[in-house]
Write a structure and sequence with these properties.
- The protein has 449 residues and is α/β, with parallel strands linked by helices.
- It contains nine helices and 29 strands.
- The strands form eight sheets. It has a seven-stranded mixed β-sheet, with helices on both faces. Strands 9-6-8-7-10 form a five-stranded mixed β-sheet.
- Strand 25 and strand 26 form a beta hairpin.
- The longest helix is centred in the last third of the chain and has 20 residues.
- The chain starts with a helix and ends with a strand.
- 39% of the residues are buried.
Length: 449
């Protein structure tokens, strides 16, 4: 991002702070990023394609659910008076006038002294007032109480003759009332709802086959480093496996995005630039990891620090130092003709993951149109053998295990400790003005889920 674009974000930073040596706070950096990101434009999708997307409009129910009174049991639809006082010793004996099955358009009518065999979900027939479960009857067999109905294909005569009812049923027993779920005119779903399986089921149930949503953002994750090797390949001396691109792609998907992982790019600025340009066609957001510090081979910084489209002013990527540990070096801006947002994260595994949670996840959720951008936080009691130390002026994020209101540090503060990160389910936040946290103290934790 150019400095001019930065000044347009609306943040009132003192002029002395705007320079290459400025140390940005975590919050100022995040605010600056989010000031440049807007939700993706709505599109209309089929229901299953809309899974995981955010609903744009309130959805009003066009018809009640259920749309008619229907049976919640397999049994017999009867009049209440006809089964009043029924018992095993003195059963009510009723004439069976036919079947009522789910989806049946013209149900039979139940008159005095009559019953209709009814299936679960079938509409309550005219004249019937209640449903007697089949287990309370002889099923028309005359041999005592039965456990269920015989299939119509095996015993079509079951819909005729007589049935003995051994227990009474009150009015509208085992009847699902029309509109008992939702009524026509009710609001079924609110704008901003993420569409999961239950919400998609409700939309289908009220007859909505398509909905307007904000699409899941497409995130391209690219790691850099000539030392990186893909898993399952042999390591040569000095090489390591590329874990960052896997971690960040998985994290992007966990945040709700459609994420694409690009294989590691060697430490060559021109190769990196061309790779990023090739990937822009499928990206709503680009995320790189590695190459953003001050080393001679930090190619992301070399490749992108001065990139700007002369025909599209305002583009470019700015690299910064943040008052945080891990994750001090960061970069962000926009590239390409569509000003695609790009976040450049550090290369150490813990640094990149913590940076993702603090900065990339909120961007993804902003693109989705969500109001809730951040992981939940909580206050917990520090359970540790010794005090935690933190560098003055840095907001430190330590890995921890959160259980029943306490948090226990796991691993050290090193930004390379992947095994400790895998065990953690929280980040312990040590503020900038705190250099030591004693066991038993209350600390803020970010819950990673």
């Amino acid at each position: 991002m150019s400095s001019a674009a930065h000044r347009d974000t609306g943040h009132d930073h003192p002029a002395a702070d705007i320079g290459p040596d400025r140390l940005w706070s975590v919050q100022d950096h995040l605010d600056d990023i989010l000031a440049t990101v807007r939700p993706l434009e709505p599109i209309e999708l089929n229901l299953l394609d809309a899974q995981g997307c955010v609903l744009v409009d309130d959805i009003t129910v066009p018809l009640s659910l259920p749309p008619f009174d229907n049976s919640s049991m397999d049994g017999y639809a009867v009049r209440v008076a006809d089964v009043a006082g029924a018992s095993e010793e003195f059963p009510a004996v009723l004439e069976v006038v036919g079947d009522v099955a789910a989806g049946q358009a013209d149900p039979v009518t139940v008159g005095p002294g009559q019953a209709a065999r009814i299936m679960t979900g079938a509409p309550l027939p005219p004249g019937a007032e209640t449903v007697v479960p089949v287990e309370w009857t002889d099923g028309g067999l005359g041999e005592g109480a039965v456990a269920g109905m015989r299939a119509r294909s095996l015993a079509p005569e079951g819909a005729e003759g007589q049935v003995h009812v051994y227990r009474p049923a009150g009015a509208r027993a085992h009847v699902r009332a029309e509109g008992s779920d939702v009524k026509a005119g009710d609001r079924a779903l609110e704008a901003g709802t993420v569409l999961g399986p239950p919400q998609i089921a409700l939309l289908a149930a009220i007859g909505r086959g398509r909905v307007r949503v904000r699409p899941r953002p497409r995130v391209v994750v690219l790691s850099t480093g000539s030392e990186l090797v893909q898993p399952d390949e042999e390591l040569a001396p000095g090489q390591i496996y590329d874990s960052n691109s896997f971690a960040l792609t998985a994290a992007a998907r966990d945040a709700g995005a459609i994420a694409y992982r690009v294989g590691a790019v060697a430490d060559d600025a021109e190769t990196l630039r061309s790779t990023i340009e090739d990937q822009l066609v499928r990206a709503d957001l680009m995320v790189t990891t590695g190459g953003v510090s001050v080393g001679a081979y930090d190619v992301v910084k070399e490749a992108l620090a001065h990139v700007a489209d002369e025909d599209e002013p305002g583009g470019g990527v700015e690299f910064r130092k943040l008052a945080m540990q891990p994750g001090k070096p960061q970069g962000f801006g926009s590239i390409g003709p569509d000003h695609t947002p790009l976040l450049a994260l550090p290369g150490n595994p813990v640094s990149s993951y913590v940076s993702f949670e603090l900065f990339v996840r909120p961007v993804i959720r902003t693109l989705m149109g969500l109001a809730d951008l951040h992981r939940p936080t909580a206050t917990a009691t520090l359970a540790a053998d010794k005090a935690l130390t933190s560098p003055k002026g840095r907001r430190q994020f330590l890995r921890g295990i959160h259980t029943d209101g306490t948090v226990t540090p796991v691993g050290g503060s090193g930004s390379h400790l992947v095994a400790a990160l895998a065990r953690a389910d929280a980040l312990i936040v040590v503020p900038e003005d705190t250099e030591s946290v004693e066991p038993g103290a209350e600390v803020e934790v970010v819950l990673l889920g």
